[in-house]
Amino acid sequence: MAALSPDMTNLTIAPMLRRDSDGLAFAGFWAASRTPKAPAIVCNDSTGEVVRSAQTAHGRGIPLIVVTDGPFPPLWPLSQPKPVSAAVAEIAPAELPHMQAPIATAIANLAAVDAGKDDAGKTLALLQRLRLTPFLPEPASVPEPASAFLNADRLGYAVVVILDGPKAAERMFRASRAHPGATLVAVGVDEHGTLGAPITLPLPQGAAAVQRPVEPWSLLQGTRAVYVGEHPAGLTALLAGTPVATDGSPFYSGFGLTEDLASPPWAGHPVPLADFAHLLFTRICRYRSPYDGTELAFEEAARLQGFLLDRRRENDRPAVCVGVKWWNHRGIGALLDSPAGSARFIDDFDKALDAAVKTHARLCFWAAQMTQERATAAERAGVAYVRLEDGFLRSVGLGAALAKGASAAFDRRGIYFDATRPSDLEWMLENIDLTAEEIARAAALREKIVASRLTKYNVGRASTDRIFAAGKTGILVPGQVADDAGILKTLSTTIDCSGTENVNLQLLRAARERNPDACIVFKPHPDVEADLRKGRIAPDVAARYADAVVTDIDIVDLLDQCDRVETISSLSGFEALMRGKMVTVHGMPFYAGWGLTDDLATSPRRTRRRNLDELVHFALIAYARYIDPVTLLPCPPEVLVDRLTTMRGDRRHAITYSLAKFLSWFGRKIGL
Q1: Any residues with CB less than 8 A from the CB of 189 and at least 6 apart, and which?
Q2: Segment 292-301, tens digit of pLDDT
Q3: Distance CA 522, CA 540 (A)
Q4: Whole-model pTM?
């Protein structure tokens, strides 16, 4: 055994752990918080390694630290997931000769001196609210609800038997005798511990067999009892409030929480479930971010695990994408990565539909490529479909200039910019209530975005010049792409968005007519400014209505200076709202119609009044999806805000983007 690096002074590491960089990282987290820094030996949970290390530690009279798999199984990337948690159990020298389960021994030691904390219940409550399944491996395919195996009205009369270990047959017999008349539900377990494996044992007459992946909480919560050998499903059952009987020695037995056929060596005084959960998940287990490897507190890790599970299970089938530009393939593919298979990109609709039928895939249309005829064809073929579009925090650089997007919206009803039909975002805004916690998170996210000076594209140079004339109301009029779907699919009573030659000119003229004495500043859309899309206004024409036309300036500087934004349906209006500015809309963008904007058009579907942070929650947290552009893992918006902030100051990214922007411009000029 060799000594650890100097920052882990007095620790000796076993050979197998030394070759495990992930295990070393968690040992390092533990060592950083350990006081006093007394000598100890650190090893992984390999049986031979534990035995050898325990003998050495006992001979030297120092503790043994065992690093084993943590409660949250790694989920992403699907091809080679990296561990995000570990259990780090410290065993005193006197206990080493008879140690059997390091985690249980460590919990028993901690419970003797550290149980009864006032905040212990918070740990249990969070696990229950998020319906997490600690120490359970995630199956290769998306798990099904219990209703796929058992009628809902029978669940309360069911007894679940987990068929792990050598005593599975005896376990079924014990369960049948203890609960006569109950429906026996036998759950197969494979060699990795995954629930829902094929069952080879003969089952009692009338028993239900679970031989496909099942969602544990839907099966374990509300049943009469769960019988188990040593499988961690018993712990999830305890969290779900279901009685558990064991015939092995799992680490959660022996604390008065389970009915144990045999008493484990560490059995002693009972430990309440809240204390047990608090000690296990906050004192013994360690967690790290899958994005940058930094240590996370339990609450952060639990919420992140719940988030990643939701994303994994949302992708319950393969995806076939239609109309997605090649530079977006990597990001969209990462967002749609599924245990059932990777996303495929096929531009020919007929071929895409055929592929979706053959592979039971979901069609994902770039929203502008979706037509009613295609929707009808998909419905006739029995193929589910969604529309997708760039999200609201996209990139550092323009999509039209080949900058890869890091967010997208997937919508089953419509899409957020199409006011002619309902969308998932509109439905949420109209129908869903939020908790105080959700609103507080949205407020913090909004403040973070504003403080980081982020927008959708994050282009343009910073400017300290005073753009708006003093003494006048400053109105910013952001231009839009003339043939953009957000223009063609909006609703407006003041501007003919589909019939006019140039909507930007109409908007500018309307803004001047409504505000004859204001200082109006017109900012062309970045895609138009870069000569990549339509909607240009000649400078002499724009000067008839605008006091100034600004280009290549970060729009945040203009939003900070102006008093109001006047737009058709630009996302700049939403960005202005987040910065406390008044916004007048001639169209019906997703953020209009909820009492936050001065609306010149109406939608009969939008009747509810919302506050700003509710809008932020639905748009940026509940609706849009994000990937970390560095790791390509699904991520919450807060992580993307940090990444975009870093990328904006990255010189290498600036050089790469400038080259891509030139290639995009040149390609369009020569007709590519």
Answers
A1: 162, 163, 164, 195, 197, 231
A2: 999 999 999 9
A3: 13
A4: 0.88
